[in-house]
Amino acid sequence: MKVSIIGVGLLGGSFALALREKYPHLEFVGVDKSPVNQKIALAMGIVDEILPLEEALQVAELNVLATPVDIIMQLLPQMLDQLPAGRTVMDLGSTKGLICEIADAHPRRGQFVAVHPMAGTEHSGPGAAFKELLPTKNVIICDSEKSHPDSLALVEAFLHDIGMKVHYMTPTEHDLHLAYVSHLSHISSFALGLTVLEKEKDEKAIFDMASTGFSSTVRLAKSSPQMWAPIFDQNKKNVSRALGDYIKLLKKFKEAIDSEDLDTSLDFMQKANDIGRILAGIEKK
Amino acid sequence: MKVSIIGVGLLGGSFALALREKYPHLEFVGVDKSPVNQKIALAMGIVDEILPLEEALQVAELNVLATPVDIIMQLLPQMLDQLPAGRTVMDLGSTKGLICEIADAHPRRGQFVAVHPMAGTEHSGPGAAFKELLPTKNVIICDSEKSHPDSLALVEAFLHDIGMKVHYMTPTEHDLHLAYVSHLSHISSFALGLTVLEKEKDEKAIFDMASTGFSSTVRLAKSSPQMWAPIFDQNKKNVSRALGDYIKLLKKFKEAIDSEDLDTSLDFMQKANDIGRILAGIEKK
């Protein structure tokens, strides 16, 4: 059985490596427009061969669409057009609303499974892939009832067998929650990095004075702009609302600091501390 | 030779543990108003005995003031009042402007060394202390020329011998830089945690959907409010300016998202990516 990975980067590559560990007899076909990514994916043993998309679709039982979300929107209808009966396409995109809308408009909607694994790092490309990225993490399937039972069962079995915890929700729920628990953290981190860079023209000052706390908070600012710009765009209504809420809170905190209102500062931080309980669970995952 | 640790928490405790490893014959005296912290500090072998502050000052060659910065401001003048000739007080506070002003007004200014190690975690208390926290990290001494050469030499020797890299600057420079590379990251993280908590009344949604990226960005939101409220207050001019810069950038980014201006989003993130080069250095430290 063959699985194609379209977009052999961090997520697609890590999914292939985890599947390979579990199913040594699966064969992997890579599709990637970058010749460098092709070479790296072959050299790392992520895929066994590179094929053009059209050919990959003819040989693979499951096609994993793991490109940035703007490319998913372009490729998904084309792929469904060409998909042989009984075969499946799943995506790994960080937004689900527009992608599911596109799928819904296609007569082969049943052969598509909309998937989003809650995992990633600030790195990208096949060189960043590692087989431990996905196992033990949560993964969300949207509109599962719109997928054909066989397509859904295949995807669920793969996700389950590499040790992921499968959750189900609508694309609307997914995009709203993700704006808060993922998209917003990326923006806060990008903005933090840029604020410090614009102020501290002298890099040595950052280097000498930043601690591991800064490093951790700003880690996501290293993430790929090409990947994130279309995510923010596709989820703009929710992201804008989350960002508005965040700015409002920051302004309140600034007012408390400006007016030396230590009680409000303390209250603000004590409430925020509560995230600790929840993080304890996430870190254990 | 005895060293007193006033405020046996994460920083004071970690400093004692690192010194103990290097100088097995040093004796450590703990001063802490919390009976629980006293017991933990003794049980962990951070200190050998607990004494009231007045008595500790009579027996210790070096007194390490490692309380929150508001308590440093209260205790420093009292301690200098009672400090025998030839003895030294150093602090480990995250702000330096007001602390150095208080020291400057005291006739025993020379016996004080103003120190800030660029290290910490989101945890607090003696139970969070570990001997690896400070070694290899940067540490800043402010107004070193105002310290008596013997006091300065003792503190520099200790910092150097536990493997820290010593830098020198004025309190004004210190507080300005720290607002950007440390205080701002804490606020951005507190605000992120609180924004998500206020939105996601259903904790399970956060738990199921947050990834390690969220966890890392929001880690500092677990930090101690009692420690940070006085830091923000003492450094309010710089923190308010840094926070103002941060809010301004976030608004620009929100505008770019709202107006579907992907070029500006991309540009913003590409510039922020540059922090990666600098982080690479910090993480190696």
UniProtKB/TrEMBL annotation, chains A, B:
SUPFAM superfamilies: 6-phosphogluconate dehydrogenase C-terminal domain-like, NAD(P)-binding Rossmann-fold domains
GO molecular function, one term: NAD+ binding
Annotated Pfam families: PDH_C (PF20463), PDH_N (PF02153)
UniProt enzyme class: oxidoreductase
InterPro entries referenced in this protein's UniProt entry, alphabetically: 6-PGluconate_DH-like_C_sf, NAD(P)-bd_dom_sf, PDH_C, PDH_N, Preph/Arog_dehydrog, Prephen_DH
Its EC number(s): 1.3.1.12
Phosphoprotein found in the keyword field: no
Protein name according to UniProt: Prephenate dehydrogenase
Sorted UniProt keywords: Oxidoreductase
GO BP of this protein: tyrosine biosynthetic process
Keyword check for Ligase: no
Bilayer-crossing regions: none
The Prephenate/arogenate dehydrogenase domain, residue ranges: 1-285
Lineage: Bacteria, Pseudomonadati, Bacteroidota, Cytophagia, Cytophagales
